[in-house]
Amino acid sequence: MDPRPPHPSLRHVGEPRLPLLAVPFALIAAVTVVDVLAPPDVHLGPFLVAAPAVTASFAGPWMTGFVGAVAVAAQVTVAVVRTTATDLNHTFQIIALVLISIFVTVFAHLREVHEKQLTQLRSVAEAAQEVVLRPLRDRMGPLRLASVYLAAEAEAQIGGDLYAATRTPNGTRLIIGDVRGKGLEAVGDAALVLGAFRAAAHQEADLPTLVAYLEAAVAADPDGTGEPAGEPGEAFTTAAVLDIPDREMTVRLISCGHPPPLLLRGGRVIPLEVDHPAPPLGLTQYVDTGFAPQSFPFEPGDVILLYTDGVIEARDAEGTFYPLQERAADWPGDGPDALLRHLCKDLLAHSPGGSLGDDAAMVVIERVTGGA
């Protein structure tokens, strides 16, 4: 599966939405006609301020200013038809309308500048994340793989969830993790972890050494200044690192504060809870602990589901967490892609408005043969 779901393209910043432009012009026409025909003691001119105000909510400053000028012209026309343009009441209405039109035009300009900045930031972040979070191969040795990344906001695919897989001489190693924080900083931290994993996963002889290497990369000073990057414990990454040998029906797992993978076997869902989990990467320097791998049976036909906490912490309208184990057990079994489609559809249906409160990533691993 594609790691990022498709989302609607952003419209050009400041581009007016033509159907909506009919609203302010219709309002100006209606108020003008009714005001001209109204009794002498009825004045509807103040309602004209709504036209530029409404336009500023969806159009750029030029269109907002134009609508404001049309509204002022309409107010002058009403004044001339009913009394005179120098009538005190109409004069104050015209002055007020001019001032408000200027104000909302400035507001539209500021909004347009802000939208351009957000669009540029979003484009840079998406490009960076596409480079960092590469799609997994469909097949690696005796394994079939599928992965998906679900952003909390449909148009802001910026987060710190990460996953990667690499081949070794004897099998396949995988990582899934979740960096603390959001935005470009989180993408940079995820890139650091993934870069370290890709550089060392096929070189380190055993899993504890690999995880120690990842810990050293996260704990190191990223600026090379010798000074701490922030307060102690400010930056950390939860992670699950797996080693799946080609010719052994087993999976070795080290969990660094990450939710336990789920093993799907014969209609059952078994959490792979390790006896001695390690702290998240970046925090082990504060805790005297080692990286002890734990082995679990992983046979042909078995499926392992890796996920980040954005999945299990998704809430419905009543505040109930997403029951991942229960929903995974409902999967009829038709390959990794089918499992991800099933879970993604169900997860978005569980979340109010189909919008997640946090980014979420999932990786499915199926052992299809007993050897490479």
Describe the protein.
The chain is α+β, with helices and mostly antiparallel strands and 372 residues long. Helix content is 40%, strand content 18%. It has 9 helices and 11 strands. The strands form 2 sheets. It has a 6-stranded antiparallel sheet with strand order 1-2-11-10-7-8. A 5-stranded antiparallel sheet has the order 3-4-5-6-9, covered by helices on one side. Strand 1 and strand 2 form a beta hairpin. Helix 1 (18-37) runs parallel beside helix 3 (61-82), helix 4 (88-132) runs parallel beside helix 5 and helix 5 packs antiparallel against helix 6 (207-219). The longest helix is centred in the first third of the chain and has 45 residues, at 88-132. The radius of gyration is 29 Å and the shape is elongated. 36% of the residues are buried. Mean pLDDT is 82; it is low at 2-15 and 221-230.
What are the SSEs and their pairings?
Layout: H1 18-37, H2 50-56, H3 61-82, H4 88-132, E1 139-140, E2 143-150, E3 161-168, E4 171-179, H5 183-200, H6 207-219, E5 237-245, E6 250-256, E7 262-265, E8 268-271, E9 294-297, E10 303-307, H7 309-312, H8 324-329, H9 336-350, E11 360-367
Antiparallel strand pairs: 1-2, 2-11, 3-4, 4-5, 5-6, 6-9, 7-8, 7-10, 10-11
Helix pairs in contact: 1-2, 1-3, 2-3, 3-4, 4-5, 5-6
